[in-house]
């Protein structure tokens, strides 16, 4: 029963996995355990506790017509996620990090409620 409930909840949140290395579109979420990172229709990228809805991290970006979050792998500098709106262009950027020997290849949410970009924790519950 619990697995079935979890599956229904994940579908309701439009979960696309636990990480992304391309674009997270409006209304889509990364879900892992009791945590979800959602690109909201108001343009804010928000990490929440799934069972309570409590917000733990927000990008602070706003858009009138939705937004998307796009991961950028950068071999020269830090990886980042750009938040863009169709009418406003880039409305925010969140930077991650590499390790000295390994490049960050995605943005992710883990089962501890941590939002990572590459090898940098940028938000947590």
Automatic annotation (TrEMBL):
This is Uncharacterized protein. Gene3D superfamilies: 2.90.10.30. InterPro entries: Bulb-type_lectin_dom_sf.
């Amino acid at each position: 029963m619990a697995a079935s409930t979890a599956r229904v909840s994940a579908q309701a949140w439009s979960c696309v996995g636990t990480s992304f290395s391309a674009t997270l579109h409006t209304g889509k979420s990364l879900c892992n355990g009791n945590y979800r990172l959602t690109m909201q229709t108001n343009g804010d990228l928000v990490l929440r506790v799934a069972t309570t809805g409590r917000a733990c991290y927000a990008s602070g970006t706003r858009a009138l017509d939705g937004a998307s979050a796009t991961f950028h792998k950068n071999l020269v500098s830090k990886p980042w996620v750009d938040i863009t709106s169709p009418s406003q262009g880039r409305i925010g950027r969140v930077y991650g990090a590499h390790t000295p020997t390994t490049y960050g290849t995605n943005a992710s949410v883990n089962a501890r409620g941590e939002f990572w970009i590459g090898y940098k924790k940028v938000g947590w519950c």
